C-alpha cells in the first residue's frame, strides 16, 4: 500500500474515466444485446471501445514519467529500481493469469496472454527505457518499433501460407504466437494480446512517456496543453494516412492503430490538463479521480464481482439474467437494458473504490 502524494488531477481523472469505460464495455447485461459502439471491431476499422485499452497503456507511460522523474534527479541505484520494477511487473502479470483462470482454475488451459499481462510488460519495458534513454531516443525507438512491425507484417509471408495475409489467425503475428506463446489463446489460434503485437503496444506506452515529459517540461502550462493537443492531432492524421497501407486494427495492434489511438490520447490529455489543472474546473471530476486513484485494483475487483453478478445462480439464473428478463418483460429495449446493467455495475464498483479513497488507501499493485 502507498499513501497519496501530490498528483496531476487531470491524469487521475483521465485514468478513472478509462477504467470506468473498461468496466462498462466488459460487463454488459447480455453479450447478445450490445450497441455496436460498445463492441470491439471484429477486425479492421475502429470503434469507441477500441480506444480504451490503448488509452490505459498511454496513461501508464505518462504515469511512469510522473513517478520516476524525481528519482532521476538523485543518484540512481538502478539495481534496486530494477528489482522493485520487475517484482511489481511480475505481480501484475501473475494476477492477470490468475484472473483468467477464475473460477475453474483449470491449469491445463492457462491463458498466458491478457490485458493485465500486457500492461505489466509495457510498464516494465517502458520504465527501463525512461531510466536509460532520453526523450529523443525514446521517440526514435517508438518509430522503429512501428515501422519495423509494419514492414514485418506486410512484407514477410506467413510460413505455411506462403504469402502476406492480415486475416485473423493467418497473419505473421498469429503464426509467431502459435509457435512461441504458451497456453491457450483467446481466439483459438490467435490472441489480441499476443507476443508479437506487444511490440507496437510498447510504442503506445512510449507515446505516453513523451506526453508525460512534455507535461514535465519548462514550457508555460497553456503551451503544454496546446502542444499536447496539436501533437495529438498530427499523430492521429498520420495514423489515418498510414491506414491506407496498414489498416487500423486493434486485434493485431497495427502501427496505424497506435498512432490514431495514441494521438487521440495526446489530445485528450491536453484538453483535460487545460480544463482541470490550468482552469481549475474540478467540479464533477471527483468520481473519476476516485476510480483513477486505484485503477488496477478496481479493474481486478470488477472481475471478482462479476462472479457474483454473472455466474452465481439464484433461482436458476444469474443476477444479470434476472435483470435482463425483468427489463425486457417491462418492454425495455434489450440493448438499453444491457447498457443500463453495465452502468449499474460501474456504480457498484465505485463503492469499494470510494471506500478506499475515503480511507486514503492507495493500493500499488
From TrEMBL:
Pfam families: HGSNAT_cat. Keywords: Membrane, Transmembrane, Transmembrane helix. The chain crosses the membrane at residues 12-31, 51-69, 85-103, 115-133, 140-162, 195-215, 227-246, 252-276, 288-312, 332-357. The keyword Phosphoprotein does not apply. Residues 7-219 form the Heparan-alpha-glucosaminide N-acetyltransferase catalytic domain. The keyword Nucleotide-binding does not apply. This is DUF1624 domain-containing protein. It comes from Echinicola soli.
